Amino acid sequence: MTSSLKSPAATPADLPPETLVITGWSAVSPHGLTDRAFAAGVRSGAKTSVRPDESYGPLPSPEVCLVPGFDIKGLLGPVGTAKMDRLTALALVASDGLLQDAEGNRVVETDGRTGVVLGISMGSLENVTNFLKQSYTNALPFHVDAGRIPFGSLNHAAGATAIRHGLTGPNTTVAGGRVSGLLALNYARRLMGQGRATKYLVGSAEEFSAAHAWIEHTAVLPGDPSPLLGEGCGLFVVEHAGTAQRPALAAVLAVETRVDIDDDPGAAVTACVHRALAKAGVTADEVWAAVPSAAPTAAGRAEHEALTALLPAEALTRVPSMELLGDTSAAAATFQIQAVLSVAEGEPAAAGRIALITAVDRDGAVGCAVLRLLDPSLGTNLDPDLDPKLDPNGATA
Fold first, then answer.
1. Helices 125-137 and 210-218 sit at what angle, rounded to 10 degrees?
2. Domain CATH for 190
3. Do the beta carbons of residue 183 and residue 154 sit within 8 Å?
4. Is residue 298 classed exposed, middle or buried when 0-12, 13-18 and 19+ CB atoms within 10 A define those classes?
5. Is residue 31 domain-shared with residue 51, that is, in the same domain?
6. pLDDT tens digits for 98-111?
7. Which one is predicted more confidently, 151 or 367?
8. What would the pLDDT profile of 330-345 be if each residue is shown by its tens digit?
9. Residue 12: helix, strand or coil by DSSP?
10. Domain ends where: 208, 240, 272?
C-alpha cells in the first residue's frame, strides 16, 4: 500500500487507481426497505424484534427480526412472483434500490462486464423443504410443483438479479454462512483485479422462514438459547478508484479469510486480523471502528474477546452491536460494513479512518476486511457531473 492510504486525510483522489472502492450501497433489513431506513436505525440503536405472524406456525423463538412491510407482489409486481422465494425477492428489491431511483430510472452505469456475486447460506430453505415435503406426502414422489424447481437452485437469486437488470458480467453465488458477505467481496476483488469484470454488485442475503428457524434451533449447543433470527439483503457497487463513476465511500484495503481447523476461533480471528492489517499497511492502534458479527455462539463470543484484546477499546463501541438486527446469518457481514458506513456518514471525524469487519461461522469459516472510510466531497477524480454528496440512492454520503 502507498503511504497516502495511511493518512487520515486520505481522499478518493489519493488512492492508487487499482484500489477497490465502494461507491454505493442498498439495504433491505429489519430496519426497513431502504438504505436510509437502515442508516437511521443503526445510528439510533433501535431494536427490530417483533412477534412473528401466526402463518409461520410454531417457532422455537417467540420473536424474530423481519423486514417490515415486505410484500413480494406489492414490491415487485405480479409477473413472475407467484412462486418466488423470499430470498430471491430480497435480492431483487435490494438491487432495485441500488441501481434505480424511486421512479425506476437507472442511476448507476453498467457495461457488459458488470458482474454479480451474492453470498448466501443454503439458499431458500423454505422452498427446498416444502418441495421435499411434497415428494413425500403427495400421491407419488414426482407429484411436485415443478414451477418451484428453479427457485430451489443455489444460484437463483444472483441469476435473477442479473437478468432483471441486464448484467452480463461474471455471475456467482458463494455460500459461507456469516462470512458470506466477505467471501463475496473478496471474490469480486479478485476477478476485478484479473480484468474479468469492470464493476460488481456484491453482497449477501438471508431469508427468515420456519424451516430456517428450526434448523438453527437444532444446531444450538446445550445451554444456549434458540437464536433471535433476522433476515435481509445488503448490496454494494464496487469499482476501481481510477475508473469509478461515482464518489467513493470507502476503500477496500484488504480482505482475508481463514478456516478454524483447531477448534480455536479466537486464535483464528486473531491471526486473520493480523494478516489483514499487515496487508493493508495499518496497525491495530489505527482502527477507528471495529464491527464483529455478534454471532450468538461460542465462536461469536471468542471473536469479540479476540478483538477486545487486539484493538483500542473505543473502536468496539463506535458502531452499535449487530445483535439489534438479530442473527442475519449470510447477510451479517454485508450489514456490518453498511453499519460502519451509516455511522461514518454522520461523523465528520470518520473520514480517512480505518474500519475493521470480522465474521465467524460455526463451520469454522473466519473472515475480516479492512476499509479506509472516505469523505467523497473532499477531492475526487470521479465524474464531475455527479453530485459528490449523493450516493446512488440519493442519500447524503
1. 100
2. 3.40.47.10
3. no
4. middle
5. yes
6. 999 988 899 999 99
7. 367
8. 999 999 999 999 999 9
9. helix
10. 240
